[in-house]
Specification:
The chain is mainly alpha-helical and 484 residues long. It folds into two domains: 209 residues, D-Maltodextrin-Binding Protein, domain 2, CATH 3.40.190.10; 258 residues, Periplasmic binding protein-like II (D-Maltodextrin-Binding Protein, domain 2). It has 24 helices and ten strands. The strands form four sheets. The chain has a three-stranded antiparallel beta sheet. A hairpin with a 2-residue loop joins strand 4 and strand 5. Helix 1 packs parallel to helix 4 and helix 2 packs antiparallel against helix 17.
Length: 484
């Protein structure tokens, strides 16, 4: 894909700067992780690495930016193989079972890592981290990603590489309007501000809808089941729910908490735009940019694109004009523990014929020097995941309140909740998706969740209770599996 001259020029400057960093080392200076990777990788010049990436905007990074830069620095070519998100796990497993060596570098969704690691599809990385001196820079990855998305039990299988987290976005002009503030305080007895509980969210949403609809509604949310299941996972735990009894592995998703969350989600649709039950990422994003809704929850790209960051980039010409560029507020969702919702870690395929070269490429991409450039690419979807990303003065100057945006992402990187991770996680998640579809269709919440629990129990029995219990215990022991 071609880019405008302005974007090509900007990328050229960044690439030139990175090249200078990579080769401008004096003997008196300690080498950074990026520099170590470049020097070590030169011995593999002429090699081609096959890199599996999510289709869409994600591959524009290795295709147009890091791939060409890496080849210039090391002589190693990068061949990007694209696959839809919901096919990456399957393609990884198929290649491993066939022993094809089809991939060298893998993008792994963190909650699928235990499944892949236990199957043997991922190369353990501890020895590579030690060999190439990467332990120090791994410590500067934000805790929620470093402590939760890198290891299975005590073994490193991936380098956390994407700060996915669900952020609360709201219209500052609506919340800070003196008339709205006074009327809301009189009606509800507390200040109009980003909600810290889901009860407040409902009251604020109804207040705004009552005043502004149909021109603007109080909120519009991710309600298409594939997206809404992440909101359910988050909210269920925020309200005090646990997915399983840790002793028996019996599903407890059909508890009073689960029913409460389902009933509340259904009731909230009443103050959202008609048809919201079918909204996915694009519908909610477009409605927020158009000024049709005052609150939404979504992934980090919404926050920067709605502010106008990347405008004029050819790869982003599908984004409509934003009407809220100078009106956006950023906060954590109610409860203060946002769902991390997907994300990626970089891994090495266990059947790769180029393991050292593959590892060196992911160390270089993931490093302090290179990752700060990658997360600022306007057309890519890698979100900040290092302390240095959140604190970067360059990034904080990108738009008027980029600092607020990065501060919010940093807060989410401290309290964010992990996606449920099990053997065959996708089957458990599919159960949630089906349950949400039934909720929108009008079935009773308790009946839906009883059926979901029975479905999960049957699946656990089929997989093996003790095997699943081991994986669940490892996941549940992580700092961000449940709210502290």
């Amino acid at each position: 894909m071609k880019h405008s001259n302005r974007i090509r020029g900007a990328l050229g400057c960044v690439a030139a700067g990175a090249l200078a960093v990579a080769v401008g080392v004096t003997s008196a200076q300690a080498q950074s992780a990026a520099e170590v990777a470049v020097e070590a990788a030169k011995q593999y010049s002429g090699t081609t690495l096959n890199v599996l990436y999510e289709a869409g905007l994600q591959p524009l990074d290795p295709k147009n930016f890091t791939g060409p830069m890496w080849e210039e620095l090391t002589g190693i070519k990068i061949n990007v193989i694209e696959a839809p998100l919901d096919e990456i796990f399957t393609k990884t497993m198929q290649a491993y079972r066939a022993g094809s060596g089809a991939y060298d570098v893998l993008n792994v969704v963190p909650n699928q890592m235990p499944d892949l690691a236990l199957a043997g599809a991922l190369e353990p990385l501890n020895s590579y981290v030690e060999k190439y001196g990467y332990a120090g820079e791994l410590e500067t990855i934000a805790p929620v990603y470093r402590d939760n998305q890198m290891k299975v039990e005590d073994t490193i299988y991936g380098l956390p590489d994407d700060g996915d987290v669900l952020v609360f976005y709201y219209r500052r002009d609506i919340f800070e309007d003196p008339e709205n503030m006074a009327a809301f305080k009189e009606q509800y007895g507390y200040d109009l501000a980003p909600p810290t509980t889901w009860e407040q969210f409902s009251e604020i949403g109804q207040f705004i809808t009552d005043k502004y609809a149909p021109e603007m509604y109080g909120a519009g949310m991710l309600r298409q089941p594939g997206n809404a299941q992440y909101l359910f996972q988050e909210r269920f735990r925020v309200e005090g729910g646990e997915f399983f009894d840790p002793e028996t592995m019996q599903a407890t998703v059909n508890s009073d908490v689960g029913v409460k969350v389902f009933e509340a989600m259904l009731a909230e649709n009443e103050f959202m735009p008609p048809g919201v039950e079918q909204w996915g990422f694009i519908e909610a994003f477009n409605a927020f940019l158009a000024g049709d809704i005052a609150m939404t929850i979504s992934w980090p790209p919404v926050g920067r694109w709605a502010a106008g960051y990347g405008k004029g980039t050819e790869a982003l010409n599908w984004i409509p004009e934003t009407t809220v560029a100078d009106k956006i507020g950023y906060a954590l969702p109610p409860g203060g523990t946002p769902e991390l919702a997907v994300g990626f870690s970089l891994a090495v395929a266990s059947d790769s014929q180029n393991k050292d070269a593959a590892y060196l490429f992911i160390q270089w991409m993931n490093s302090e020097d290179i990752s700060i450039q990658r997360v600022q690419l306007p057309f890519a979807l890698r979100d900040p995941f290092r302390t240095s990303h959140f604190e970067s003065e360059e990034y904080r100057s990108r738009w008027s309140n980029a600092g607020d945006y990065l501060d919010t992402l940093k807060a989410g990187a401290e309290t964010g909740l992990l996606d449920l991770s099990l053997i065959q996680t996708d089957r458990y998640e599919e159960g949630i998706r089906q349950a949400i579809s039934r909720l929108w269709a009008g079935d009773e919440p308790q009946v839906i969740l009883d059926d979901l629990a029975a479905q999960w129990d049957e699946l656990t029995e089929r997989i093996g209770v003790e095997d699943q219990k081991r994986v669940y215990a490892d996941w549940a022991s992580k700092p961000n599996a449940y709210p502290n």
